[in-house]
Amino acid sequence: MAQQSTSLGSVRWLQIQSASDLDLRSQLEELIPEQQECLKKLKTDYGKVQLGNITADMVIGGMRGIIGLLWETSLLDPDEGIRFRGLSIPECQKLLPAVNPGGQPLPEGLLWLLLTGKVPSKEQVDALSKELSSRSSIPDHVYKAIDALPLSAHPMTQFTTGVMALQVQSEFQKAYENGISKAKFWEPTYEDSLNLIAQVPVVASYIYRRTYKNGQVVAANKSLDYGANFSHMLGFDDPQMLELMRLYLTIHSDHEGGNVSAHTAHLVASALSDPYLSFGAALNGLAGPLHGLANQEVLLWIKSVVEECGENITTEHLKDYVWKTLKSGKVVPGFGHGVLRKTDPRYTCQREFALKHLPDDPLFKLVSKLYEVVPPILTELGKVKNPWPNVDAHSGVLLNHFGLKEARYYTVLFGVSRSMGICSQLIWDRALGLPLERPKSVTMEWLENHFKKVSA
Ligand SMILES: CC(C)(COP(=O)(O)OP(=O)(O)OC[C@H]1O[C@@H](n2cnc3c(N)ncnc32)[C@H](O)[C@@H]1OP(=O)(O)O)[C@@H](O)C(=O)NCCC(=O)NCCS
């Protein structure tokens, strides 16, 4: 297989040579032995080398800064933001295949990149689109499980329920029950993962139509790509909305391994729970307001600003509103981050999309005003490590502009996208034979005794 190196991180370009190059699974079959060797060598050569010191602050403070996970698909730099297999978001926008030249990347291309570390050709992406479409049928009991919930159930609760109902199909679980050897674990994990990634948009759109559109389901259009078909099933066919959905699904897919949803999936899967069980657990973490639910919170908060002060709120009034939020003991949603220390590039690319397609939208103008107003206030608070906007500060107003106005649904979209990052890594977890995750915990008494001993 012909490859050539580029200066872009670890990404290798791939040239199409044979029909099997279009098959993602056979690509992985070639890559896995190479990567297993690489990990073995790392362990042999550097296994005992230290990677840093752990302080009590880190233990008490949510493990910030502790390097404790292997996560191959992406890496987050505090200043520069996310890189998917070495590629930044602007590089992905430039290099990954799009429907129209210069358009937004196809999320299937990102999935290929996450899994293989290679930029796929348009033919490879089209083949993957078709494959995902062929894996997307949903057994009836899944709809029945969701229908058992009241319409008032939060869409994320409905989504997790749907994913758990899909779990009965798990190939990994069946294979494990039949005594599959460890060396082959990745194979049914791959099957489950691709099935799950293919199925979640169908489940998610069913939840949307059931909850907000009187249960009038829109059938899939199998000639469309993954993102466009998802938008179509939700009921939105505006070409700009299709582009937005492709961008949205691409940028929310992965954010290295330590965030709550990714880490949860990795932890649960380390017990050899199958991809459905692991992803379901991840969704429950994503549903928390400090993580994925922040996109819902942002739009609701912005709408409360408009309700109370109007769309043309002055800068001074907006400052007062931000202070009022902070003084009532709440966070300003959409700002701050556990790792990032600059404006999130996922925010920036959405802002660029808005500047191009909806520059006059009043809520977009308000988001722009918040970009000026909030960071200095959070800085003034003195304790916020990152006063800059994150991905969630922007996504809601874009969706709202194109008619997807139900904020409580937004985290489901995030979850659909996350399936790609999480499942790609789970395949590699099994391929590399990563072990059960089991960090050490200690009590406050243990810490006190330890520090007495070291300072004696
Ligand atoms: C994302 C987030 C949870 C990161 O938390 P973190 O790593 O603990 O952040 P910091 O170290 O900067 O937090 C230090 C303090 O600043 C506060 N802070 C951080 N971001 C804040 C925000 N946007 N508004 C108000 N206070 C904030 C924290 O609550 C913490 O206060 P405390 O010491 O009284 O508990 C936090 O920034 C936040 O709550 N943001 C709003 C929710 C959000 O947008 N989440 C989506 C993230 S992609």
Automatic annotation (TrEMBL):
Annotated active site residues, numbered on this chain, are: H291, H337, D392
Q: Which SUPFAM superfamilies match?
A: Citrate synthase
GO biological process terms, semicolon-separated:
carbohydrate metabolic process; citrate metabolic process; tricarboxylic acid cycle
Taxonomically, the superkingdom here is: Eukaryota
Q: Where are the transmembrane segments?
A: none
Tagged with keyword Transferase: yes
Q: Which UniProt keywords apply?
A: Transferase
Q: Does the keyword Oxidoreductase apply?
A: no
- One Pfam family this sequence matches: Citrate_synt
A GO CC term attached to the entry = mitochondrial matrix
Task: Cite the GO molecular-function annotations of the record.
Answer: acyltransferase activity, acyl groups converted into alkyl on transfer
Q: Spell out the family assignment given in the record's similarity comment.
A: Belongs to the citrate synthase family.
Q: Which PANTHER family match?
A: CITRATE SYNTHASE, CITRATE SYNTHASE, MITOCHONDRIAL
Q: What is this protein called?
A: Citrate synthase
The beginning of the lineage is: Eukaryota, Viridiplantae, Streptophyta, Embryophyta, Tracheophyta
